[in-house]
Amino acid sequence: MDSQSYMPVPPGIGMEENFFSLDDILLSHERLPCRTESAFPRLGFLEKSSETRDIPEGTKMEMPLWLAKGLYERKRRVLSLELPKVYREGWRTVFGADPTVVDLHKMGPYYYGLGSQMLHFDSPENPEIANTILQTFIGRFRRTMDSSQNAYNEDTSALVERLDCLERSLFKAGQSGLNSFQLVLAACSCVKCGSADENDLIRDFGMEVIDMSLWDGHIDLVISLQPQLSWLGRSIEPIFRPRLKRTDTTRRHTRQKMSDYSSLTDKCVQADEKKTSINIESSDLFSSVPAIMEG
Amino acid sequence: MFCEKAVELIRELHRMGDGQLPAFNEDSIRQVLEEMKALYEQNQSDVNEAKTEGKSELIPTIKFRHSCLLRNQRCISAYLYDRLLRIRALRWEYGSVLPTTIRFHMCAEEMEWFNQYKKSLATYMRSIGGEEGLDITQDMKPPKSLYIEVRCLKDHGEFEIDDGTVILLKKNSQHFLPRWKCEQLIRQGVLEHVIS
């Protein structure tokens, strides 16, 4: 089944979880070592090691994150949490040295997610933890993005092996953008070489380019800059709209638009073949490219 | 630990990341609801005890059970919601009539929801695009495949495509080849695009 129509709730950003997100629910199921600072009467049966009716104060046990979040209180001492290894001083220096070599999938598949959630627990190391997570992400992002934009139609398992879940979803987004863009390029080249004409394009795509204002003839594509492709692919998709029932006026309108479109696609394909880069006239398409990419 | 059954439901859905709809797990939901009922009743009695006898040390336990109740609620809500998202996607993938295998995976309420969704979508489609309406669930993708059916018009010998396979182009043979590879040959008149 083509998964394009299924849009699950994505995980939350930063310290917030999305209530309905399956990823966030699984993330918050991770267990953390902790120490109870007050007693929990009548819950002794949960702690298999103790035979008592209650969980006494000072018990060391493992709690899932959701429970720790629910019980934690800043003022009263109910629970104290230990930081998992990966977020402690030792590992933080490793990440500081070179974030790209670490196997984040092994270090708990939800490195960024869990790290962000740990910030809820008011540890004195919070600023350092937050900073490390951020710098690790920045350090690894470029590589993830590059690999997702350059792996077309090949086995990507080696590339995603060492990525954590957030990076994997970014990788997947990049790949789907790349694939969409390749489909558009293939369609453009059909129009160019004449193996399909404009009518074919309309029939095959079943679409009509309605809003050509973006493609004024001033927009040239910087095809040589691979990272922009996925952004471009995602920008192109909304431009295509479903076919409208044609009246005479719309038919004329369409023909004019389609010939504008053909000349534009000519340029695209030429630029692609020569691997030239041309000046960007419109910054709208690329305004969403994050500053991270500069570095 | 509580709420393990509830997370199992979530894992079941998470395993099918591509949007397939698994069978409605009525059993698990029933068990989770029973666990919630038990937790709630225990908490009720403890709250009464804490109020009447002033046993404030029960409060951490009450909070504990309350967190478990919230967690179960979250899991079940997310399970049902995600299933609805998948069912909605089914309308776009399969059309108005669903294959029977999939229909068996839906519970009665989900079937009802699907019918209502179909109705809303149909009403919307009728209202746009002029008199006859517009079926926006058609033609959602660019050319269905990058491969086309071609027939060879003259003998051309061997032809290599990207993944290394070599095709022998003999007169009147038909092949299924990548579009961009055939373009030039089509222009030369060696191949002919077969529109079936």
From TrEMBL, chain A:
Annotated ranges, domain GINS subunit: 94-181
CDD domains: GINS_A_psf3, GINS_B_Psf3
Keywords attached to this entry: DNA replication, Nucleus
Domain DNA replication complex GINS protein PSF3 N-terminal as annotated: residue spans: 20-72
Primary location recorded for the protein, binned into one broad class: nucleus
Subcellular location: Nucleus
Kinase among keywords: no
Superkingdom as given in the UniProt entry: Eukaryota
Presence of keyword Nucleus: yes
SUPFAM superfamilies for the chain: GINS helical bundle-like, PriA/YqbF domain
InterPro entries registered for this protein in UniProt: GINS_A, GINS_bundle-like_dom_sf, GINS_Psf3, GINS_Psf3_sf, PSF3_N
Homology family: Belongs to the GINS3/PSF3 family.
Subunit structure: Component of the GINS complex.
Function text: The GINS complex plays an essential role in the initiation of DNA replication.
Protein name: DNA replication complex GINS protein PSF3
Protein's organism: Cirrhinus molitorella
TrEMBL record, chain B:
Database matches in SUPFAM superfamilies: GINS helical bundle-like
Localization annotation: Chromosome; Nucleus
Xref: CDD domains: GINS_A_psf1 (cd11710), GINS_B_Psf1 (cd21696)
Superkingdom per UniProt: Eukaryota
Principal location listed in the UniProt entry: nucleus
A GO term from the CC aspect: GINS complex
Keywords tagged on the record: Chromosome, DNA replication, Nucleus
GO biological process: DNA strand elongation involved in mitotic DNA replication
InterPro entries cross-referenced by the UniProt entry: GINS_A (IPR021151), GINS_bundle-like_dom_sf (IPR036224), GINS_Psf1 (IPR005339), PSF1_C (IPR056783)
Function: Required for correct functioning of the GINS complex, a complex that plays an essential role in the initiation of DNA replication, and progression of DNA replication forks. GINS complex seems to bind preferentially to single-stranded DNA.
Family: Belongs to the GINS1/PSF1 family.
SUBUNIT field: Component of the GINS complex.
PANTHER family in alphabetical order: DNA REPLICATION COMPLEX GINS PROTEIN PSF1 (PTHR12914:SF2), PARTNER OF SLD5 (PTHR12914)
UniProt name for this protein: DNA replication complex GINS protein PSF1
Source organism of the structure: Cirrhinus molitorella (mud carp)
